[in-house]
Structures are given as structure tokens and as C-alpha cells.
Amino acid sequence: MEYISTRGKVAPLGFIDAILMGLANDGGLLVPKVIPQLSADTLKQWQKLSYPELALEIFSLYTEGEIPRDELKKLVDDSYGTFRDAEVTPVKKLSDTTYVLELFHGPTFAFKDIALQFLGNLYGYVSRRTNSIIHILGATSGDTGASAIEGVRGKEGIRICILHPHQKVSKVQELQMTTVNDANVLNLSVEGTFDDCQRIIKELFADVAFKERYHLRAINSINIARILAQTVYYFYAYFQLAKDNAAIGDSRVNFSVPTGNFGDIFAGYLAQKMGLPINKLILATNENNILERFVKEGVYQPGEFRGTYSPSMDIQVASNFERYLFYLYGEDTEAVTTLMAQFKAEGRIVIPADKLKAVQADFAAYGVQNEECLDTISGYYSKYNYLLDPHTACGIAAADQLATLGEITVTLSTAHPAKFDESIRLRGIQQTYPEQIQALFEKPQFQKVVGGSNDAIKDELVNFF
Ligand SMILES: *Cc1c(COP(=O)(O)O)cnc(C)c1O
Question: Does domain 91-108+225-427 have CATH number 3.40.50.1100?
Fold first, then answer.
């Protein structure tokens, strides 16, 4: 399997080179050259597989011989052996049409563990196999950082530096990142927003000389390995439902996805392109609704940053969006390059009516207001005795708005409610923390507060790496 850049100026790469490159050297994003197509027969056979077995099949398609199958199996087993639920990503039924796909049973109680446990092990494998140093640099709005750190802490040959916006992540998220005291971990608390952190990272990675000199590797969802790992649970959830519910038969299922950087929902789009019969992909956002406006109006333009109860979705520029543009424009790298240059120069992209129609065939979108998010949490808690975290609540609220009567919708639950207790308590709901989270409050923290300039971050990196 080869990977190419959405901007067309990178020679095709193998899987391992693609994950090492992260952001493509021409500024684009890497995508598979050809998307594997699954037959109905294959889908039927896959229904019987456990989560790790299914992950192994999907990763085999995308790594195609580059990693021996027994090694790949070990990477998969190591990655999903750390999950607290035997099913890895169990599906919970709330009503005949409402299902929740619980993606938060990994070490840091957020869905990012699913991709980052795997990517951490993959980097460990690549470092051993090529005898090379891996320096990971990432930005987080809260969950990625903890997850990435958990994926590589203490691993030989790997160092990791994570930027988070100072005091703009939840207490539990902050503790999960900063209570790790392995010597290969550096937490930088940046004065600014997540978008500032993300921009700094993007610019440092775009400085190819700096990137090569310090062996910089990405863990942000621009890394294609993360997207691939996230396709697995769309298949798994669909199969669980089909098994569990004769009523589904061969019919299609909606997925509602709490969206920030467009990575998770892009994985769903990819699963659909591989042949999974998804009906609607519902794109749920919060008050930072650039993607909702894009789907409704065909204008992609950042608005004013809004603080919300779902901070992992407080994003104005969605880093994976370019991957979708690539497919929307029929894999035309020239068109993508022009659009992205226009975005850089004018701060917005406007697509024509025929493209907007195509977008609306691919996605339905809904932006959830802050109070509506909390209402959904309290409403579902009293009706179903099920506690939603604020991100999942956005997904549920969007599904309630956009699923047509009788359609089955699976909402992706992207975090455990304990991670966002500050918001949940606003509605007077008391929860008991899982013991792993409770224990964090007793531990010392390790982090450095820094200014939000490229140079300040560069100085820290040069000292650390
Ligand atoms: C990262 C994250 C999201 C958004 O996922 P994207 O892939 O960035 O769209 C949603 N919810 C939670 C809890 C997250 O951590």
C-alpha cells in the first residue's frame, strides 16, 4: 500500500515512511493511494471477529506486507490488551434507535487511546527495527496529550513533548498528562489557545530542516495511522448491532460523531468508502461550528473562539479537513493546493453549489449550544440513568436533531464523564470517579509554563531532545 499527499508533491511512500512523515513535506496530508474495497463476503466474515482480530485484518490491508503479520498481531494485542473492557469498544443500547459506542475504556478514559496505544507501539517497533530515534511533538486540547504520553512513556528510543493551552484543559486531563514523571516526557503549558498550540506545531513541522535535524514525529490526528486505527470501531460497532438486532438486517445505520479536528469522522467516511453501509454521518460540533457552517453553507471560515463544555471540540481550524477536500474534489491535488493557498491568503474557502450538494450527501451537521449540551446530559441521565460526558452529549443532541424517525443512530462516546466533572456538576449530578482517576489527585505535577511563540517552544525542544 502506498501513500500520497493531498497536494501531490511527495513521491509515493510506504506505510512506515508515511507514519514517520506525519504532515506531508509539501504541507499536505497523506492518504492511501487506493482505498481498499471490501466485498459483502468479507464483511460477513469479519462479523465474527473480536476487536483485535478485526483490527489486525484492517491494518494488514493498509500495511500490506511491510510489517510481518505475527509482529503486527503483537502490536495490536499489546495495544488493545490495556483496555478495561473485554470488548474494547462495547456498544450500549439506550433505546430501540439510540446506541452509544463507548470508546473510553482505554488507559486515559478517552477515545484517543484507541489510536494512540497503537501508534505508541508502532513507533516503538519502528525505533527498534530501524535503530532510530523518535522525538514526538504534539499539541493537545486535552485528551490527545494524555493518551499519547500513556502510549509511549518509559519506552526506549522515544521522547515526547506535548503542548497544551495553559489552564484551558480540564483538571483531570491536566493531571493525566502532568503527573507522569518518566524522563522521556515533557509537558509544556502554553499561554494561548489550542489553535495557537496547533499552529506552532504545524509551523515547526513545516520547517523541514528543523524537523529532520531533531527527528520530529507527529501524533496529532494528521498522522494517517490514527485515522486507520479509528476506522476499526465503525466496523466493529456495525457488526455488534447486526449481531444483536435482527431488525437491522442489511439496513444502514447512522453514526453521530462529536467532531473537532475532523479525524474521527473522517475515519467513518473512510470506513464508508471501504464498503461499510453507513447511512448518515452526523457531524456534531459545539459553538465552535466552522464545520457545521461548511456543511450547511459551503463556506469554510473560522469564527470567533468560544469556550464550551466540550473543550476537545473547541477548534476553529480542523486539521484533517484537507483530507476530505481531496476526495470532494475527485482526488485532484491541484484543486486542493489552490483551495488551501486561498484559505491561507483569504482566511476562507467557498465551494460551488454542486460541491455543496456532494458535501450534504456525505454529512449532516449540527452545532450544539452550551446550555443544550448540559440539558442533554441531565435529560439522558434522568430518562436512561446513563451519564454522558459533554462531548458525547453533543453527539447525542445532534443525533436527536438529525436522525429521521425510526433510523438507528450510533453515537460515538469519546470520553468518560469523569474527565469532565466540572461541567456535569453544573447540573447537580454527582459521580464517583473511577479509582485510576481518583488516584491522580494525590500525585505531584511536572510541567513548564511557556509563552506561545515558535521560538520559545523551539528553545525548550532543543534543550529536551
Ligand atoms: C479529540 C476529541 C474529539 C474530537 O475528535 P476529532 O478527531 O478531533 O474530530 C471529541 N471528543 C473528545 C472527548 C476528544 O478527545
Answer: yes
